[in-house]
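Run: sequence + FE2/S2 (inorganic) cluster -> complex structure.
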Amino acid sequence: MKNFSKLLDQADFTKAEIVELLNADGESCSKLFAMADEIKREHIGSKVYFRGLVEFSNICSKDCYYCGIRKSNTNVHRYNLSDNEILDAARFAYENNYGSLVLQSGEIANEHFANRVEQLLKQIKSLSNGELGITLSVGEQSYEVYKRWFNAGAHRYLLRIETSNQQLYKRLHPDGHSFENRLKCLKNLQDIGYQTGTGVMIGLPYQTVEDLADDLLFMQRFNIDMVGMGPYIEHEETPLYVHNDVLWPIEKRFSMALKMIAVLRIMMKDINIASATALQAIDPVGREKGVKAGANVIMPNITPGMYRNDYSLYQNKPCTDEEPAQCRGCLDARLALADSDIGYGEWGDSKHYFRRMNK
Ligand code: 5AD
Ligand code: FES
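>> structure
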C-alpha cells in the first residue's frame, strides 16, 4: 500500500484504498480533512449554501426499521402542515435570503399528495418570483409524478439509498420495501433532469467499513450530483433498537461520517455535499465540522417550532425547541468559525450536474 500522503494525491481509489482512508486516525485523519478542504476550495470555492428545510408532514406509509416516524410507531403525534404554514416557511426562506428550500415529509404516494405538492411548488415559485430554488425529498414516487413536480419547478431531489449493500438494505426494511425500486427512482430522477442526490446512514448495525467504501463507489458510479449522509442514531421506539449491542460507539459513527464526507469530496470534487443534521445531534458543532471536512451545504431547519419535536427520525434531534429566526443567527456565527462564507441568495447548484449534462 502506498504511503498515506501519496494515496491522498489521487482520486480513483480502489475499494481497499478507500477502506484505508476510512480507517485513518490521528495525524492521517487531519491530513485527510485538510486535503478534502483544499480540494473543495479549489474546485467549488469556500462558500456554504443554505437550504431551508421544511419538514411539512411526519405521516409516513412506510415502516423502515430505523426510523422514528415509521408508520407502526403509534407514539408519534402525526402532523401535516397547512398549505399556508408551508408557504409562510417558504416566504421566510426567501426573505432571509436562503436561496433554496427543501420540502421533506414522510412517504405518501397517492394522487392527492401528488397534486398538493404540485400546487405548492407553483405557489412557492410565484411568491419568490422564481428566485427560490426548490429541492424535494418525499421518497419513492412514479416517473410521471416526478416529471410533474419537475415541470412545476422542483429542480433537485434527494432520495437516500440508505445503504448500497442489498442484504443490509433487506435487514433494515420490511418486505415490500424494495432496493430495486429505490434504484429505479434514482435513475428516473436523473433521466428527467433533476439534480439528483442520494446518501447513506453511517454506523448501522452490521454495516462494515467495506460496506461504506462500497457506498462511496456506488455514488461515484451512479454519477450523483449531491449527497447527504450522516451517522445512524438509534431510536428507542424502532425495531432496530434491539441491535444496539453491535453498534459502534457514537463517537466512531460521528468521526466515520466526517471521513466519509472527506473521502467523497476527494473522489467527486465538484458535487454538493450536505453536512447532515444528525452530525449536530451528536456534537453541537457537528455540522461545522462537516463543512471543514469537505461539505458545502447546510440545511437549517425552518419548520415552525411547534412541529419540530414530532419529526423525530432519531433521538436528540437538535434545534427542536427553536424557531426559524433563531437558527439563522446561530448559523452565521458558527460558520464564521469554520472559515466559510455563506452564499446568501444564491442557489448554489451542483457544478457536477452541469458537467454531467454538458450544460
Ligand atoms: N438515524 C439517522 N438517520 C436516520 N434517518 C432516518 N432514521 C434515522 C436514524 N435513526 C435518515 C434516513 C432518511 C433521512 C430522511 O433520515 O437516511 O433517508
Ligand atoms: Fe418513512 Fe422509512 S419510515 S420512509
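>> summary
The chain has a mean pLDDT of 92. The CA atoms of residues 105 and 173 lie 18 Å apart.
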